[in-house]
Structure formats: structure tokens, C-alpha cells
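Re: duplicated header lines in exported C-alpha cells

Our pipeline writes sequence and C-alpha cells for each protein into one text file. With two proteins the header for the second block appears twice in some exports. Here is an export where it did not happen, for reference. First protein block:
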Amino acid sequence: MENGEGLVNSLTWIITIAVLAAILLPQMFKILREYERAVVFRLGKFQKTKGPGLIFLIPFIDKIERVDLRVLTINVDKQEVITKDNVTVNVDAITFFRVIDAEQAVIQVEQYIHATSMLAQTTLRSIVGQVELDELLAEREKVNKNIQEIIDRQTDPWGIKVVSVEVRDVVLPENMKRAMARQAETERDRRAKVINAEGEYQAAERLVDAAKMIQTAPAALQLRFLQTMNDVAEENTSFVFMPIPLDFIDAFRGLGGDKPIISPSAKSKGDGGGEEEN
């Protein structure tokens, strides 16, 4: 009987120790990953920041808050914003941040992820409302930088570093899209007309230069005439149009001398006047 009672007592102690170990050991030892830190509170008072690896705690006295030091991502929900030039747009963004001081992130703010998300939303609305639509579309990097600097400055006391903020999408109303399309089309037409006028001006300049060069060397005009004849002869045509140079006509005019040409009617009139005198 005594042996049986001793065995029962031994089993009781073993079971009791096993239960206490199962309860106490998880409270005494914690394993933290490389990117985790544990903010330890002893009887409600901040003790220290521990980790990574195996850490020792006093059971039921020490409490910890795990903090992830990796870069976290917050998706700022799409919201309707009125820009500085009174255009309604829907914008959303992505915020990248990380905890650099686990103690401040736990003690200074209740939920640092939620607080950073709300701050990113309000800052996005504020910055977009201060810029015009053209600046929002053309200078996206500048807008992102302004949002990032403002959020980072306000989250710095929380031990949080905002890595970057990216405005992901800007949705415009349909009437604004059509107006911008018309504006772009008009701008392209204007550029085409300017380029065409510039080409005409340059061509006119070159023609004037060519005329001056031909004027100083008359043989160049004859060569140009022969080249034109050669180009026309290469085509499969049944006729050839040959312009006559003005110099060729002037040569025939010189054959009559300075004597004016008298018409037949004027000549007969002169003869009649002589007979009356006789």
C-alpha cells in the first residue's frame, strides 16, 4: 500500500510540475525573429526593448508588445478631392513606412499603423487641394515628395520613418477628359501650322538665295532648264512642254532696231492726208 501511495504522490508531483512548466515556460521564454523587437513592460512600467533571438521574461509580471521593423505598406483609399483650380478628381495613394524606434511606436501612439494611415489620408487631401490639375498630372514626383515630407515630419515623434508616398491613380470626370482631349488636339494643330509656316519660310529663303546665285551666273539657269527637261523626258508621257526663256524673246526684239512698228490702218490714214494737200 505504501508503495502504491508513493507512486501516486510521485505521479501527482510529476503532473503538477509538467502543468506548471507548460504554463510558465511560454511566459518565461520568447523567441523573436530578426525583424522583430519586444517592448517589455514590468508591472506596467517600461523596462527595455529586447530582441531578436531568445529573451527571458518574469512570468505574469513582464508583458511585451511585438513590433515589426520591416517596411509596411498602407493603401490610402480612393477619395474625392477638389483641386486648386476647382476640378473634382478621385485620387488614391500608397504609403511605405517602417518603425525605427519600437519604444516610441508603442508608447507614443496607440495604434501606429492606423494612425499613420489616417494621417496619410488627410495629408493627401490637403496637398492635392493646394495644387492645380496640370501640376498634379505633370509634376507627380513633386506632389509625392511634399506628401512624404509632411507625413514624415508628423510621425517622427512616433518613431516612424515614412520611406515614400506614391499617388497611384488620378481619375478625372468624363467631361474633363473630353476637354483635355480637345485641348491636346488643338495644341497639335497649332504646332503643325507653326511647323508648316516655318518650312515655307525656310523654303522661301532658299529660293531667294538660289535666285541671287542664278542672277550672278546666267549659265546656271540654262543648266537648270536642261535638268528639268531631263526629268520630264524620263516620264512615260506623249508630249513635252518646253518653256521659252525670256532672253530668247528679247533677242528677237532687238532685230527690228528702234523703229516702231506702224499698223496698216495708221499707214492708210497717212496716205489719204497727202492726196488732199495735192
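Second protein block, exported in the same file:
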Amino acid sequence: MEQDKRTKVLCLHGFRTSGAFLKKQISKWHPSILQQFEMVFPDGVFPAGGKSEIEGIFPPPYFEWYQFNMEFTDYTNLDECISYLCDYMVKNGPFDGLLGFSQGATLLALLVGYQAQGKVLSDHPPIKFVVSISGCKFKDPSICDVTYKDPIKVKSVHFIGEKDWLKVPSEELASAFDEPLIIRHPHGHTVPRLDDVSVKQLSEWSSCILEDLETAIVPEALDSGNPSDKEAISAEFAENLVTA
């Protein structure tokens, strides 16, 4: 599939790491899954304000999306972060999906929740799916009352580690979504390697996403253009269904 025709996914890295590090983390997943998507890995808005847990494992620079207190109830530079990401998505998108690890997963839920409530991204098409790895909810009531006001009705898959210190918060975040798919793994706070069962689950989930996107695009295309264009598009779509 050509690069410019692949489904575009914005990938948000964890606290005090980088887009390059998340790309390396995701690279352990089966290539048959990744090759279906164009994945974009921006760096966080702010340089890391302290020690990174990946020092000595992966080279700097390191970044963070926003800052927070120990209780995770007070946030610094969050508004700037949200504005930056919304501008980035409009200028570099549109993006069909979001993927995030840890702080990035927490952020992606806020973005889709805020978009559903009409608070952000009014000039960007609705996000259609998310992949959340070790995320959690914000605790500030002013954020919760908007982000999780209603079940978030985008397709979602949530990776939750049995040894992750955010296991329970990750389960709570998954519960904020409508009919989430939960994929559990035996590891800690990390992007896990996928066993055969997980690869099958994620492959089937992503195939359903792509089919939904394809069926949404074709009627839109058929509503415009001359009759010969419509016939060509319809024939191509039918052929794809047969040969897929």
C-alpha cells in the first residue's frame, strides 16, 4: 500500500522519552500490523525537566508533554500541550487514529474526549480509533467532567500489564471508552512484545478499523465526480473486497 494512502496515526510517547524511542518500542510489534498504517512520532512540547528513566538505554534528547505533581492532581503547561497537539494535527493530518504510551496514552484519551464534547479539534475530522498502552485518567475534576462525561465512542484497544504500577488506572481509563478491547500481558510499565494470541487480536481489530474506514470513504467518493469516475471507484472497491 502506498505511503500516502495508508491510514495515518499520531503516536504520543511517554514521559521524558521521545518520539524516536516510542518508534523503537513499537518496532517490536509484528510488521504485518504496522505496515498497514502511516505512523507519525512527534517529540513532546517541552525538554525533559529532570532525569529520564531511559538514560543509558536510549540516547537523548528527551521530552515531556506537560508536568504534574506527585498526586497527579495538578498539571503545569497542559493547556499549552493541548494547543500544540491540536495545531500539529490540523497542520500535519488529518489523523484517523491516535496511539500513546503512558503520558501519551493519558493525553490521547483527553483529546478524543474533548473532541467529542466539542471542546477541541473542531477543524479536524473526528478521531476514529485509539491504541492506549499503560494510560490513566486525569484526576482534576474540571478535566474529568468534560473528558469522561460520556462513554468515549471511538474504537479503542488498551494494553494492560499485570505487573504495571498503572494496571488499575489503565483499567479505569479503558472503562471510559465504549466497548473497549483489552489486551493483557504479563509485563510491567512497558510497550509489550506481543504473543501469538495478542498479534491475532490486534490484527483482527486493526483489520476491522481499516474496513470501516474503507466503507466510509467509498460512499463519499461516489457522491461526487462524473458517472465514469463513480463506476471506476465502485469497480475498484468491489475488486478489493474479492482479492483482500
